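Exam review. A common question shows you a sequence with its structure tokens and asks you to describe the fold in words. Practice with the pair below. Do the first one on your own.
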Amino acid sequence: MSVKEKVSSFALDKAINYVSGDPETNFPKLLSLIDSLGINSFEKASQEIHEVLDDPECVWYKFTMDLWRDIDNEVLKSVMQNFGLKAAILGGQKQEALSEKYGCNIPMAMLIDPTSACNLQCTGCWAAEYGNKLNMSYETLNCIIEQGKELSVHLYLFSGGEPLVRKADILRLCETHRDCQFGAFTNGTLIDDEFAREILRLKNFIPIISVEGFEADTDFRRGAGTFAKVQNAAKILKSYRLPFGFSCCYTGKNVDVIGSEEYFDQMIEWGAKFCWFFTYMPVGKEAVPDLMATAEQREFMYHQIRGFRETKPLFTLDFWNDGEYAEGCIAGGRRYLHINANGDMEPCAFIHYSDSSIYEKTILEALQSPLFMAYHERQPFNENHLRVCPLLDNPDAIVEMVEKSGAFSTDLQDPEDVHDLADKCRDKALDWGVAANELWACSDNCSGCKARVSA
């Protein structure tokens, strides 16, 4: 750790301790102290923080104060150190420098599948197609993180399969790399008191529970009894004052539920602090294209999520519809990359093509490979950042990149031709293009948008 990192870490630790005693009184005092230092680079952030702290009626004021009250202080400190400071602030600066040095994308985060095994068999999930036979060794997982840290990556998310099938190895990685923030997209059914006690001890792991709505929709896709287990997992995590969130895939069948005020209120009541929203992708020959959301449904979610950001104390990310904030697609190593349980390094977790294996190339070599460089050179895929995806929104882009790079399908049971995959998305891409262009031309604050949210 550099001198700058040590000083920054020490200062952040002291600041968190100061605020924790009485956040409503001490947070504004701390901000005033920082303002008095006249740090130019902090001026914009300070203004945004003031907008929250100076207005007790603001929903984000409540969200901020609830964090200090609801989350274990040492866990909160670890998250701010590993995610806020090392992964986002210091890591981001280094990643920009490395990207310029090597002429390729350098990610902020890595999404890793330690296993293809899963204790559920959800409708439309590609993980089951891998046959529940693939597992990366602990040594390989550790090597990935070691390589990532050399690129200043301090954020690692596990998916699968069901990553908590590998609980022991995940906890071991958290123990070994205390300077990293870990998380996992999990069905939640394997979370118990013993596991909660361990992540409370380690402080650098956050569960992200996948759920499809209320009981009927969740059990329809994930199996009978799953919803009850999700509720129990949330209850356990909340009782240990641990941060957790939800991952929601909205489809043509459940969008009215996922986007409802009742559902947002339920997530908050369960104790979630954030939610990542995804839309269904028809990846794999066994996918169900009828589950894809229509343009009208996707626009409904666009307005619902943005509207509730002004009224609900829940941090939300809309993986597709928030493209304007990231200025386009974040895959291809621009913000993240995916490594599946077979060791294939993929630009995106939702598009299963690769030209690099972790067993044959380093992560940096993969980022400089033809497929990842095709992403690097083509991003953004559309000037309208509400049409960010090279598959769902711009299907010709994925065809061109796969063909140009010579990438192969990573579906181990039934490889899918990229033309067939793209064809499944063309009609939806055209429909969404019309809606997205109207939204993009419209100011976020215009009366039309507000009227739609109210509706």
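Now try the second one, then compare your answer with the model answer below.
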Amino acid sequence: MELFVFVVSSLMILAGAVGVILRPNPVHAAMSLILTLFGVAVLFVAMEAHFLAAVQVIVYAGAIVVLFLFVIMLLGVDRAENLRIEPIPVQRPLAVIVAVGLVSTIGAAIIHSRDAVRSASGVGLVDAVDTADSDSNIRQLGRDLFSDHVFAFELTSALLVVAVVGTVLMLRRPSRTERTP
């Protein structure tokens, strides 16, 4: 039964991911993303991580995809744009620099964490079945998120706010008085 659930949810994830990439309509691509996120939630349930499954559905499939759809609707996907005209000329070289920095940071984190995983045995969340307190994992996860990783949590919230503000600024159309010289 576990193999069946794994195969079905993996097929959901793969089909949704391919749909995100190949669908020409952005709204349909966002719906494919929902399929992918639900497949991941099914895998969390199969691993008995019910809290993470609920967070996956509520936060990602609910709030984040709704934010994506809101941005897509604000951008107006029905109008065609000339892709040969570069609105911000420095955008592509800056994206390459950021991508190289991101890949090198991820590589450094992988190399650094490889040694930490080998040396730390038994460090992590407490098994809730073995303890009398059934929500000790949630408390430890909350403590960890809001103490050791509070910077990453706040950075994510700031990035979401910047994305919404940037979308509104990109959509700001000049009024008729601003258009005429």
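Model answer, second protein: The longest helix spans residues 91-119. The mean pLDDT is 78. Full marks require stating both points clearly.
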